[in-house]
Each structure stands twice: as structure tokens, then as C-alpha cells.
Design goal:
Layout: E1 2-6, H1 11-22, E2 26-30, E3 44-46, H2 55-65, E4 70-73, H3 80-85, H4 87-108, E5 112-118, H5 141-155, E6 162-168, E7 170-172, H6 187-196, E8 201-204, E9 216-217, E10 219-221, H7 222-233, E11 240-246, E12 252-253, H8 254-265, E13 271-274, E14 283-284, H9 289-295, H10 303-315
This protein binds UDP-4-deoxy-4-formamido-beta-L-arabinopyranose.
């Protein structure tokens, strides 16, 4: 199969590229390396910024020339805090980039897409486990761009686009040490970074209505998430956009993550309780019933494998 991956030099994108390449597919990555890392790439690659107006023609030509059958779209800005500071930049990049990609796919008559969406579309759901039928009320521009992206993809069924949108929960770990998440922007890489720098680890609030007072999230191994993208391709065919949560269905609190990292690293690092972070829901755990039923997909790894793989990557 000929697959074009946007953001193939990124943390998640590079894991999907490797799985696709290893199973004999032709893969080409389109990435401007603004946040991706070139060394991660082990496939043909083109330097292209999706939100650049000239990208439509370049992408259309590429899709036709390489006889692309499926596109997997990762390339987007994904920092919640940054999106609050620079909302226009996020809409320009994430929505503009997707609009250009869809325009090119329509012109090249490429009608299969897997889209990287996010649990951020739910905002602060007040349910035990979030299902795809729960309200989507994003509370930050990043989450809004992912929801609007899903709407844009819904509309593209008018020209026959068949899509799957995967709503990621909290991805972490490393399938291969060299593909680890190098940006310390989420809990686990932030903790590993602070251990390395000998700094205390901050817990943003310990007074939430949870068993130990800290926030609960659904941490999913990047390899499990990558496999969901491969499984999604087989679901494509009929015009329309099917949305799936991708999470383990199990929650871990910040304190539980900290305890796991102390166990794996053998380092009893200092922990400080800081104030709660605006916009943090006390609990965000996926119902993964839909993807399990329709894809036969299930998470193979839990928190200990996630932390082990992240720690090994940090040490390597
Ligand atoms: C996890 C928990 C923090 C750092 C974000 C995006 C979401 C998705 C995943 C892209 C929270 C706490 C964190 C720290 C802490 N990204 N924390 N100390 O906010 O659940 O989700 O990343 O799709 O869209 O919103 O992830 O890793 O930032 O935080 O206590 O130093 O860890 O308060 O409860 P989050 P996170």
C-alpha cells in the first residue's frame, strides 16, 4: 500500500511510519521539521509546510506521482498552553493545514484518511469513562481545532472521502528508544526531564475529587496508539468519518505515575504540590468499547510498560 504520512518525523507519526515500513508498505512523509526530528525518519521524506498556500499544488502532485492510496494526518500544533496564548496561530496551522490537505486530496482523488484527533475535544466531561457519544465541548483552542478538523472531514464525504478520526488520550512511552518523545510537554517526559535536572517534580493540585486527590488520566503506550492507526486503514472505504477513542480504558493518577517512575528509576526524587492548573478535568478516561468492537483493537501495554520504555529511552 502507498501511504503518505504528514508529520512522519513526529513522536507518534514516526512510530506509525516504522510499523508501516516494517510491514512492507511504501511510505512517504511530509514534514517541515518545525517540531519533528529528521533522524526519526526512515522513509522517503519531503519538506513541506501544510499551511503554506503553495502546499496545495505540491501535495496534489505528490499524491498523484506516488500513487498514494491512504493519507495519515499527524502534522499539527499540539500544545494546549501555547494554543491559549496564540489561538490564531493554532487555527491557521491546524485548520489551514488540514484545509490544504483535503483540497489536495480531493484534486488528486485520494479518498482515504486517518486523522489524528484528541480527547481534548471533550473538554471537561463529567463522566466515569468518556464515550464517542459524549458532549464535545473543548475548553482550549487546541481542542477546538481538533473538533473543527473532524467537522471538516465530515463535510468531505460530499466528494467521497472515507475517514477515521482517532481521539487520542494521554500517549506516552517509546516503541523504540530513538523514537521517544523528546519534548518535555506532558507529565511523563516532564518528570523524566526534571529528574535529569535534579529538580523537584510538581503535582498540579492534590485536592481533586479522586482517591488520592490528584488528576486521573488514561495513559496509552505510543505503540498501542500506532497500531490503532494501522488497524484504522482496514476500516476505510465507505464515505464518511468514523470517530474512535483510543485509550486503555484504565485511569492512573499523577501520584500513581510518580510512584511508578520512582520504582522503575530507583530514584526517590522530590515532589512538590503546586496549585491546580486551569482547565484540568479531575478525570479523563476513555471508554474504548467502540474501537475494540469494530477494530478488534485492544491496548497491550499498561502504565508499567509505558514508564519502563520511557525510562529506557531516556537512559539510552
Ligand atoms: C497530565 C496530568 C496535569 C505536568 C494534554 C492535552 C491533550 C493531549 C495530552 C494531545 C494533568 C498533571 C502535568 C506536571 C502535573 N495532547 N501534571 N505536573 O493535560 O491530560 O492532556 O496532553 O492530544 O490534548 O490536553 O496531559 O501530560 O499535560 O497532564 O501534575 O509537571 O498531569 O495537571 O492532570 P493533559 P498532561
Amino acid at each position: 500500500m502507498n501511504v503518505l504520512v504528514t508529520g512522519g518525523a513526529g513522536y507518534i507519526g514516526s512510530h506509525v511510519v516504522r510499523l508501516l515500513s516494517e510491514s512492507g508498505n511504501y511510505v512517504i512523509s511530509v514534514d517541515d521539521l518545525s517540531t519533528g526530528i529528521g533522524d526519526r525518519l526512515d522513509c522517503e521524506a519531503v519538506d513541506l509546510t501544510l499551511e503554506d498556500p503553495t502546499s496545495i499544488k505540491r501535495l496534489t502532485d505528490l499524491l498523484v506521482e506516488k500513487n498514494i492510496e491512504v493519507v495519515i494526518h499527524f502534522a499539527a500544533r499540539k500544545q494546549v498552553g501555547e494554543s491559549v496564548e496564540k489561538p490564531e496561530f493554532y487555527f491557521q496551522s491546524n485548520i489551514g493545514g488540514l484545509a490544504n490537505l483535503l483540497t489536495a486530496m480531493r484534486q488528486a482523488e485520494v479518498k482515504k484518511l486517518v486523522f489524528s484527533s484528541s480527547a481534548a475535544v471533550y473538554g471537561m466531561p463529567d463522566v466515569e469513562k468518556v464515550t464517542e457519544l459524549d458532549k464535545t465541548e473543548p475548553i482550549n483552542p487546541y481542542g477546538q481545532t481538533k473538533l473543527v478538523g473532524e467537522w471538516m472531514i465530515n463535510n468531505a464525504s460530499v466528494w467521497g472521502l472515507s475517514a477515521v478520526s482517532l481521539r487520542y488520550f494521554n500517549v506516552a512511552g517509546a516503541g523504540w528508544p530513538e523514537l521517544a518523545d523528546k519534548q518535555a510537554l506532558n507529565l511523563i517526559p516532564i518528570i523524566l526531564d526534571r529528574i535529569e535536572r535534579g529538580e523537584s517534580v510538581l503535582v498540579f493540585g492534590d485536592n481533586y475529587p479522586t482517591d488520592d486527590g490528584s488528576c486521573i488520566r488514561d495513559y496509552i503506550h505510543v505503540l498501542d496508539l500506532a497500531r490503532a492507526h494501522i488497524d484504522a486503514i482496514d476500516q476505510l472505504g465507505e464515505p464518511g468519518n468514523q470517530v474512535y477513542n483510543v485509550g486503555t480504558g484504565e485511569g492512573s493518577s499523577v501520584f500513581e505515575v510518580i510512584a511508578e517512575i520512582k520504582k522503575v528509576s530507583g530514584i526517590d526524587f522530590d515532589v512538590e504540590i503546586a496549585g491546580p492548573r486551569a482547565g484540568d478535568p479531575p478525570k479523563l478516561v476513555a471508554s474504548n468499547a467502540k474501537i475494540s468492537k469494530e477494530f478488534g483493537w485492544k491496548a497491550e501495554f499498561g502504565l508499567s510498560e509505558i514508564v519502563n520504555s520511557a525510562w529506557k529511552a531516556k537512559e539510552s
